[in-house]
């Protein structure tokens, strides 16, 4: 059965987007921070958060290919659909970076040429020391390479998956394994460097070797949440007949496990910096604790404790009520985690109002619109895959 | 029964029956040791005795018999400790994490990998023990209420966290390993005919009856222990890494340490598993169970974890420059170009560059090459710890105290001794214990056995 993107769904998502536009325009007008940084920071938060979900989908898809995993084959099209947001998400990111280059905002301090000029009063010795890496031409080359290669793979996997529906056989499968391995190697390096370039460089003085892996774990878990929620929704609408409780259980396990991974990395980074208390490092957390205390620790405990306590038991991971409750809460939790990566270095204070909520909803609408559109373009379950039968028989 | 895709490779080769699996696994237990076993055992025992002698000399004379000096206060001791703990990661990863991921190939290797884990963790525990000097006061590491005044351990110290982390890891691994052994001991008990072995194996089998309820509990406890052991795989080496990362020593204090140490540990652990199993499958005729496919899978784990470690090395190197912190940058320049550059480049070539050879299918399915690489990785991972520890210490903040570290014969003897003890224990294990989980293996015979897969395909 093919998925039809109903009119009702289209209207709902359009309304969400409209709320986003209103919130954005209203926010831009009322934004009294320097260079409208608050507005642009919101665009970056949402631009990155939803983009990262589609990138997480691409990573997970490649991981499934490379490890010859079968259990999620019946959900492959759902993952592919999520990965197809990568083009729109990438465009939003480009817009934010372009605005930075044009000095419409000052989220990236290092984009200001004066900090590199020893005669200027804005000269910053530490940033100037990073000039070989943090300079506009190199930044743009890197950004375009990341986005270009990731999008190339998103397109490639999608195209070959549709082709496999027609052709069958094992040739495409084995080729996908090889391509997935190549993607994973590229991703292993660029997922870290991209998070340094796009996010860590906001707090330009600060550095942490773990930062890239921490951002990666956040994107992975955000994707797992979206996969669980969308699967449950589609299943509820009568789609995905091959998906049984075991598949949902397995997806729930991933959501549970990667929440632990995220917690582990969050804690490792925080604890080591807090313990050593070196001025150049600890400043990052001092800002977050002084200005965002409740939010900062609240996000950590929410994203850790909710999945741990509620999803620990086998039964909970097989009941959609629990999965939806935890999923929605930590989905917001991980959005707030991205908020906490970006806002302290760009706006500096806690601003939370209609603009933040509205733009979050607007981008949610855009994301779902794009993903549903991709769902409607192909059958929701693959037709030929060497592991399809194995996946259909999953029973745990 | 679960469906298995036709394109999956068989995991048990040849025309095996249930009875043959039992016979194959029991052959070394009921048979006599061959000459090569005695030769290897003899060499290991001599190494072990030499090491024990060195340790006794160390304890009698003092830690001053090691080559430590006022600048390099930690060297081979902690290097060996971390190296052994790292090796001890593969067993629990294979038995717990791969169980959670439903990887059937783990069944050929998990028993010996777990045994290796337990022996490796024991060898690791030797180092902090003998480093204390007065080993008879070793119980001071536990937070015991005492009569000596308000004397407590330092709860802020990651060295104390190590005590908890490693002892927990050791106990859970031991229980996990032993529970898996119980049904197999029972099988041996039922098969052996001599009186004394029968008595011993029936004691070891804890009165296992093999009824449905017992198997049900067996499976449940395996899953629970796997769930408990999985976070332990992460926590142990994370806490070991914090011994270094909580400090303010350039080259030690870096946030990537916990996950990067875990990855390195799995990397070295799998290398040691390869070293042991490639010999064992040959000597004990287990080629039908530990197949080339198993070796290939392990090589893939090695290339993945080796590459993660590689990414971490490069991240550290890059951030040391990016940070703009002079001391941090110097620590890394000194590693790559200073007097210990040779050890840095041994580390880089053994851990990052050479595992990339496994991208070639021909090489990762070659037994000789895999064996060679497993030794290379073991060497590389020892040097990784040596580089981290000694090169960060030997040139500290005060150039007048810069110096080098020179190991004495006691340093070398103690290290060789732990290798000897490790091999003695492993060789004894391979003679008297069922080295494959024979009962569990039987559960996959019909889905992954070669002749059954053939029949399936013909239909």
What can you tell me about this protein's structure?
The complex is a heterodimer of chains A (396) and B (459). With 396 residues, chain A is an all-alpha fold. Chain A has one domain (34-350). Chain A is 74% helix and 0% strand. Chain A has 14 helices and no strands. In chain A, helix 1 packs antiparallel against helix 13 (354-375) and helix 9 (245-276) runs antiparallel to helix 10. The mean pLDDT of chain A is 92. Helices cover 71% and strands 0% of the residues of chain B. With 459 residues, chain B is mainly α. Chain B is globular and about 75 Å long. The A-B interface holds A 68, 70, 126, 129-130, 133, 170, 173, 185, 188-189, 192, 196, 205, 207-213, 260, 264-265, 268-269, 271-273, 275-276, 278, 280, 386-387, 389-390, 392-396 and B 2-8, 102, 231, 234, 238, 242, 245-248, 253-259, 307-308, 311-312, 315-316, 319, 322-325.
Short description:
The complex is a heterodimer of chains A (396) and B (459). With 396 residues, chain A is mostly helical. Chain A is built from 14 helices and no strands.
């Amino acid at each position: 059965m093919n998925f039809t993107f109903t009119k009702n769904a289209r209207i709902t998502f359009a309304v969400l987007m409209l709320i986003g536009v209103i919130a954005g325009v209203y926010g831009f007008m009322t934004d009294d921070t320097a260079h409208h940084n608050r507005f642009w920071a919101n665009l970056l938060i949402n631009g990155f958060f939803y983009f990262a979900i589609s990138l997480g989908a691409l990573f997970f898809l490649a991981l499934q290919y490379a490890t010859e995993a079968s259990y999620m084959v019946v959900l492959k099209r759902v993952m592919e659909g999520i990965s197809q947001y990568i083009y729109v998400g990438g465009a939003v990111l480009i817009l934010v970076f372009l605005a930075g280059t044009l000095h419409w905002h000052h989220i990236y301090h290092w984009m200001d040429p004066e900090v590199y000029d020893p005669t200027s009063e804005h000269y910053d010795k530490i940033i100037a020391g990073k000039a070989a890496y943090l300079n506009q031409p190199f930044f743009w080359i890197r950004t375009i390479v990341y986005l270009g290669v990731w999008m190339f793979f998103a397109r490639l996997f999608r195209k070959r998956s549709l082709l496999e529906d027609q052709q069958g056989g094992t040739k495409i499968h084995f080729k996908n394994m090889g391509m997935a391995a190549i993607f994973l190697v590229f991703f292993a390096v660029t997922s870290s460097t991209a998070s340094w370039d796009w996010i860590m460089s906001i707090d330009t003085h600060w550095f942490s070797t773990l930062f890239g892996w921490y951002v990666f774990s956040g994107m992975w878990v955000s994707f797992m949440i979206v996969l669980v929620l969308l699967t449950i929704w589609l299943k509820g609408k009568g789609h995905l007949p091959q998906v049984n409780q075991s598949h949902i259980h397995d997806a729930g396990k991933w959501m549970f496990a990667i929440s632990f991974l995220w917690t582990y990395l969050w804690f490792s980074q925080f604890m080591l910096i807090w313990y050593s208390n070196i001025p150049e490092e600890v400043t990052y957390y001092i800002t977050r604790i002084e200005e965002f205390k409740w939010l900062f620790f609240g996000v950590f405990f929410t994203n850790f404790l909710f999945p741990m306590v509620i999803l620990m038991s086998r039964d909970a991971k097989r009941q959609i009520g629990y999965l939806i409750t935890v999923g929605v809460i930590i989905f917001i939790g991980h959005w707030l985690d991205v908020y906490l990566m970006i806002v302290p270095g760009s706006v500096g204070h806690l601003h939370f109002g209609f603009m933040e909520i509205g733009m979050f909803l607007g981008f949610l609408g855009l994301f779902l619109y794009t993903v549903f559109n991709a769902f409607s373009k192909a059958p929701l379950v693959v037709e030929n895959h060497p592991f399809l039968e194995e996946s259909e028989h999953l029973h745990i | 029964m679960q469906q298995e895709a036709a394109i999956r490779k068989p995991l048990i080769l040849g025309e095996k029956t249930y009875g043959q699996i039992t016979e194959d696994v029991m052959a070394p237990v009921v048979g006599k040791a061959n000459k090569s076993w005695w030769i290897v055992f003899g060499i290991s025992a001599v190494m072990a005795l030499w090491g024990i002698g060195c340790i006794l000399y160390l304890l009698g004379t003092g830690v001053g018999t090691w080559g430590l000096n006022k600048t390099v206060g930690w060297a081979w001791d902690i290097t060996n400790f971390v190296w052994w703990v790292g090796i001890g990661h593969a067993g629990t990863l294979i038995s717990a994490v791969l169980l959670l991921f439903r990887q059937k190939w783990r069944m050929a290797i998990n028993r010996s990998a777990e045994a290796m884990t337990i022996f490796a963790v024991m060898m690791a525990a030797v180092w902090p023990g003998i480093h204390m000097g007065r080993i008879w006061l070793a119980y001071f590491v536990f937070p015991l209420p005492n009569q000596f005044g308000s004397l407590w351990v330092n709860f802020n110290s990651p060295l104390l966290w190590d005590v908890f982390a490693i002892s927990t890891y050791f106990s859970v691994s031991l229980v996990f390993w032993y529970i898996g052994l119980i049904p197999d001991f029972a099988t041996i008990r039922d098969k052996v005919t001599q009186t004394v072995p029968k008595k011993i194996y029936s004691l070891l089998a804890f009165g296992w009856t093999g009824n449905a309820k017992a198997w049900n509990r067996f499976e449940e406890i395996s899953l629970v222990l796997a769930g408990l052991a999985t976070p332990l795989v992460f926590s142990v080496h994370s806490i070991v890494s914090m011994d270094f990362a909580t400090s303010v020593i350039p080259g030690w204090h870096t946030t990537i340490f916990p996950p990067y140490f875990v990855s390195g540990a799995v990397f070295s652990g799998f290398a040691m598993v390869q070293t042991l199993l490639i010999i064992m499958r040959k000597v004990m005729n287990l080629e039908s169970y530990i197949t080339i496919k198993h070796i290939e899978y392990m090589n893939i784990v090695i290339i993945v974890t080796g590459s993660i470690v590689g990414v971490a090395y490069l991240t550290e190197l890059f951030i040391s420059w990016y940070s703009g912190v002079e001391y941090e940058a110097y620590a890394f320049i000194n590693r790559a170009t200073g007097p210990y550059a040779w050890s840095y480049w041994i580390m880089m070539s053994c851990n990052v560059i050479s595992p990339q050879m496994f991208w070639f299918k021909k090489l990762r399915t070659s037994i000789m090459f895999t064996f060679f690489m497993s030794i290379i990785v073991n060497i590389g991972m020892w040097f990784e710890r040596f580089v981290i520890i000694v090169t960060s210490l030997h040139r500290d903040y005060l150039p007048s105290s810069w110096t080098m570290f020179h190991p004495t014969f006691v340093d070398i003897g103690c290290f060789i001794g732990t290798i000897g003890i490790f091999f003695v224990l492993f060789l004894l294990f391979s003679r008297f214990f069922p080295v494959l989980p024979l009962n569990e293996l039987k559960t996959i015979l019909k889905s992954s056995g070669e002749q059954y897969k053939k029949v399936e395909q013909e239909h």
